[in-house]
Give the backbone structure.
Amino acid sequence: MTARTLFSAGITGTGMSFPEKVVTNQDLEALVETNDEWITERTGIKERRWAEPGTPASKHGILAAQQAMAMAGVEPEEIDLIVVPSVTPDMMFPATACVIQHALGCTNAWGYDVSAACSGFVFALQTARAQIETGAVKKALVIGSEVMTSIMNMEDRNTCILFGDGAGAVVVERLAEGLEGIIDHMHHIDGRGADFLYMPAGGSLNPASHDTIDKGMHYIHQEGREVYKRAVKGMTEVTKGIIERNGVSGEQVKLFVPHQANLRIIEAVQKRVGLVDEQVALNIHRYGNTTSATIPSALHMYQEQGTLQPGDYVVLAAFGAGFTWGSTLMRWTVGA
Ligand SMILES: CC(C)(COP(=O)(O)OP(=O)(O)OC[C@H]1O[C@@H](n2cnc3c(N)ncnc32)[C@H](O)[C@@H]1OP(=O)(O)O)[C@@H](O)C(=O)NCCC(=O)NCCS
């Protein structure tokens, strides 16, 4: 069934913010038995940013959103909707969207958080797009912000080398008539993946207790190999699928912005889809896996360095815990 579309939605501003503290692969050698060569070869990560303990996810989300609003030329009171995908929200409740709304002075906005792990940004973007297309809202903020260090076991070399902290944000707006922005999405979930990537405690199943803390159940647990295989398969399917379904050829894609979990996953997807290096956005070497922040921060980087021009085809793709995975096809509309 096709939803009734009255308006087009497009990205009009981007922003990003990262903590100052750079943690290199060499720095991690002091924490766990690992080395720069292993991390670089297996993941492509060279360094990441880690926030000071106690930093809330909202902090960098607010800074990224301010940049995105400035680029879009949008005032806080004009924002109708704030959507925050995050696996490390400030608290279980209230939603981090509320914290950010208050801090930004978006006095006319409503909003909510979205839980879709590393697919959070593409899922959240779709909810904003859908509301703009139906006319329910005109201007939205989608803010991926994470403090992954708050749920990382610094003694587990399988995971502590992978993740970083930071935020990326976009403004999504109703476009002037005739302009094409976000064109299509292709999203999936499969709960059979829940055993491979999860944080067991802190929810209603295993409320926080001395026991859950002692057992390290409030940390990320991951079966890396299984996630790796499923990520390559899932991201390839939705990337190929969305461009084929819309009659766009691989060569027409100006920028492919994959979730940045592992450089080898990205390269495998790139090869299967048939894209060249110049088409693929990368920031994993500098920031590691920042979960919901990887895609919006990469969009900001490539916008700032002048790669993206109005009208360019951009494809986003992500895979994450759940399992969740999805893609977005759009025309670039910053400055359109
Ligand atoms: C996590 C990941 C990098 C591990 O790479 P891998 O090639 O699968 O490596 P394995 O887990 O099979 O481990 C290989 C060996 O390296 C070791 N190893 C694991 N982490 C290490 C580290 N940080 N430093 C050095 N050695 C390490 C393992 O213990 C294992 O040793 P063994 O062969 O003696 O048992 C990879 O599986 C991955 O990226 N998976 C997907 C992660 C992901 O995308 N997560 C987020 C989804 S959104």
Notes: The chain has a mean pLDDT of 97. The two ends are 30 Å apart (CA to CA).
